[in-house]
Specification:
alpha+beta
Length: 673
Amino acid sequence: MGVSVRPLGKDDPTQIGPFRIIGLLGGGGMGRVYLGRAVDGRTVAVKTARAELADDRGFRTRFAREVAAAGRVGGPFVAAVVDAAPHDDMPWMATDYVPGVSLTDAVLDCGPLPAHVVRPLTAGLLHALTAVHAQGLVHRDLKPSNILLTTEGPRVIDFGIAYSAADTALTTTGTALGSPGFMAPEQLTMTGPKVTGAADVFALGGVVVFAATGTGPYGSADPQVLMYRTVHEEPRLGELPDDLRALAASCLAKDPDRRPALSELIARLGPPGPYGDWLPEPLDVRLRRLSARLADPRSAHTVPPGPPAAATADVPDATAVSTTPLPPFPATVPRHQGPAGTSRPSGPSRRRVLAALSAVGTLAGGGALTWALLPDSDGNGNGGSGGGAAGGGSGTGAAQGTGATGAPAAGTLAARLPQEIRDKGVVVVGSDVAYAPMEFLRDGTPVGADIDLGNALGRLLGVRFDFRNATFDTLLTGLNAGRFDLVMSAMADTRDRQEGRADGVLTGSGVDMFDYLDAGLAIVVPKGNPEGLKTPENLRGRKVAALNGSAAHAYLSALGRNGSGGVDVRGFGSPAQVYDDVTKGLSAACLDDFPVAAHTVAPDQGGAALELVGEQLDPVPYGIAVAKTDTALRDAVREALDRLIASGEYTRILKKWNLQDGAVTRAVVNGGR
């Protein structure tokens, strides 16, 4: 669950105002959000603006308005502003970093909430909205991804488009601000009633429906369809319990004058809480462990016993983040196979540890981390992602790619797709943007070989590939639950995954995987390879850098134990430190995942001082996963991939991302072992 905390890059600040910056939480079209540490040990989310926006006077005015709006609202059910400097050279705002899980992630990963949880959730949200409206503000974007579930109750975040009557001149006339499916009808029509606090009441009704059923009041569809349904159709409330159905129906009235006042709803539901143990056990346990991991002095909760502790993880400045060892991440099938056919250690990898640290799913004061994954700009699969990410927090909790559409492919390829896919014109792809080759940003938007391949496949099949971001460990669960049609996320094709097993235990119905890339570990050396290193044996007796806790570190340690001559492994907490060590000549080489290493040494990424040498170590096939029952979808997409390979477009895409050494000759189904 949640978005990843990433190590800081070479251009990221290490100090913003009074806060020491220890990790990157995310970003989008507006700027970046960092994980910071205050002098008293508290964790904060520091939201910054991109340089080109900071130079725009209009943007500074809007950013200052957001700071003022958030700072005026207080109470236990909103994320408090800690500090801000909207007029600094780089405008920033810091809010409490709330150890929580967004309502979006909680429902998608654990299922709809029971009615006895939805009621105190709603009561807390009513008090949050009351605090907003008491300041003459309208939140205007209340939705599941802007609501955090914490051990002490819900919290409302992201006041980026909140406004008061005095601020309306800053809003473009006729512009609909908000999120389709939760926006009130008056937010969608240019000639309708004025937008008031009643719009937040409408959104609250939608949130109640989502929390209790797992979908919004107007179902799941493209934004334009949701907006039409909101204005012209009645909400879908059949699955709600009677009392919640009546409450949601009153909130979702088309006419804002017919919606109940907040005070009336509060009287109906009673006081908020109690919140001592209000969440389902899996969420409660996860949140309490997360609080302990953050080592925030405000967290005084007792942490339930967990699995045996693993070694301290390699998060940026790990000692500053937590002095408590991180327990292993929930068991999953390893991504790779280990040396000489053995399994690599299944302890927490760098990316899993970072994801566990940030299982909050959304950012206090920064909104949901939403990536708009856009199609290639040149129409042939070789261009960039095009466009920018959605503004901070203004999208849904999942990353949605717009993919490429086009005429059906020649022959019967498009016709072989399942009728359901053809009807909706979309293939929903589950992916974790924190995993290579999907973790690379350009202008704040994720780009990568997976996106380019998905766009190219979509053009052949005459459908749009819609990438949805989810935590790696939930992707196959989401596939089996029908949230995704495919999973494409650097996932190793293994027999266990094919059979639905983890550590020998049956955990699901299994999947079919057709392979699209071979990837293992890669040796990176200074440009020109002054020491002539090509094979693992050449690394013996030398200093080699690797990420602590990674498969590369484990491989080097095993190499030192097997055979004559050990390896002097230099462990680091971030990729930047690993590659910097090699660039400075302090280590003779480093070892890393092939897609990450290939991207890092690419000249357009500033890696001109480094190069890859030798062949990949222990490469395994990465597969695109499909449910075993979806054979028609599997075969249509697999054949489309084979056509891309035969035409040469596949190779061109891989070369663009420096991944040509991992090319496969055809899309083999279940080729991994």
